[in-house]
Design a protein that fits this description.
Two copies of one chain form a homodimer. With about 100 residues, chain A is α+β, with helices and mostly antiparallel strands. Chain A is about 60% helix and about 15% strand. The first copy, chain A, contains six helices and three strands; from the N terminus they run ααβααββαα. In chain A, helix 1 (about 1-10) runs antiparallel to helix 4. The first copy, chain A, binds a DNA duplex (30 and 30 nucleotides) through helix 4.
DNA sequence: ATAATAGGCAACCAAATGGTTGCATGTCAA
DNA sequence: TTGACATGCAACCATTTGGTTGCCTATTAT
């Protein structure tokens, strides 16, 4: 879980996930196109996404195909974000009331 | 949005959010209790959470009260995670089919 | 066979990160 | 008013991070 959060912390990596979301199964070369980064930098980012299990790869001849794995993202939503949903409505409006309570 | 992802990347900071979720409105001192970290380290983490708008603070005399703001977390769920929900089911099972398609 | 293509590996670098220590300031209580 | 308590500020440090360059390997096409 920590590795997923870590992997998502970088905007370039989130952009790579976006690209794969738009078109799944792209090669390294395709994923590099138009990015202001060397191929090796992209390789590293994809490696981080891979160890976080957000991307799965498959060698196909000399090409490496990259596939988005949405499961960890979904899990963050289920196991983590939903925890904080409750109390969302009461949050900031309730804040002042709690403060005033403290003054008594 | 980037600042939120960045802030959530660190486990200590997520733990601080958990603590505030369990009991809102804690002071810096309270949030330090039991952590294997100096007060100053915690201060920095809270600062990062604050600039990401995940925590709101209020001075109350010599104390600084910390309140969880769940809104950015909710937004990540809405604006980001939901994008990747679609295609979740077709993901890995679909993967091989796409591959075989490529071979033709 | 050989050249072009797709990707891998490793060393290196600057900047950001997570943490520390030491000292200063503001506020409350005796 | 003086000491204790809660927090702030700044310098410093080691490690991680995001990126580079240079070279090597494997596969495909001519």
């Amino acid at each position: 879980m920590d590795e997923v959060f870590r992997a998502l912390a970088d905007a370039s990596r989130r952009a790579l996930l976006d690209r794969l979301h738009a078109r799944n199964g792209q090669t390294l070369g395709e994923l590099c196109d138009g990015l202001a980064m060397t191929r090796q930098a992209v390789t590293k980012h994809l490696g981080i996404l891979e160890t976080a299990n957000l991307v799965t790869t498959l060698r196909h001849g000399r090409e490496k195909l990259h596939y988005l794995n949405p499961v960890p993202i979904h899990q963050i939503g289920e196991r983590w974000i939903k925890k904080f949903e409750r109390g969302k409505l009461t949050a900031l409006s309730e804040l002042k009331r709690q403060l005033e309570k403290r003054d008594e």
